[in-house]
Design a protein that fits this description.
111 residues, mainly alpha, 434 Repressor (Amino-terminal Domain)
Amino acid sequence: MAKDSASLILSQNIRKYRKLKKITQAQLAQRIHKTVEMVCQLENGISSTKISTVNEIADVLGVEVYQLFLEAPLLTIEDLSSDLVEIMHELQDQNPEYVRAIRNLIKAPRD
């Protein structure tokens, strides 16, 4: 992963997890003892920061540091909840054999 792409992924993930946690840039800045401008620049990929600050951000956002660098961030139950509810409604009136077949499909190993 190139430095530029790592910075872009970091900035996008900080924004995503901050919004999932429902905190503002100002609240994040306050909790990590930085300025709102610094958080804004970090989320927009304009500036970078020390790993110690990334550790603080991860703590505030309730994630592990490595999750901030994943190209496809781990999905949370909040990300999936509407999809899961829709799937549950679709399966609700199906016969048990059909539901078992779907479950087996989900559990099947991926190549």
